[in-house]
Amino acid sequence: MKKPQYLILVCNSYRVAGDAQGACNKKGATSLLQYIAEEASDRGLDVVVTTTACLNVCSQGPVVVVQPNNFWYGGVTGEDVIDEILDALENDECCEKYSIAD
Ligand code: FES
To answer: Which residue's alpha carbon is at the smallest distance from atom 1 of ligand 1?
Structure first.
């Protein structure tokens, strides 16, 4: 198989036992998935978008991580934020405005 250039992880608050119930899920992270996938595709970015269990930075959610770059974003609340993150990713750069990691 051909590996994608980027893996975009969207926290959806899954717990080891039970349903998704954490901060990112409650703040609407699930609704971002389709937009990220479609917008990345429209831009010609080679990405796979998937969801995750809690990433342990709930207070900064919704949280999105881009690998292999290890870009961690918080406050990803809507399409306008995604657009800025993807703008930076088109240049293989971190969008510092929403970065929550050093
Ligand atoms: S629920 Fe997303 S970081 Fe914890």
So the answer is: 13
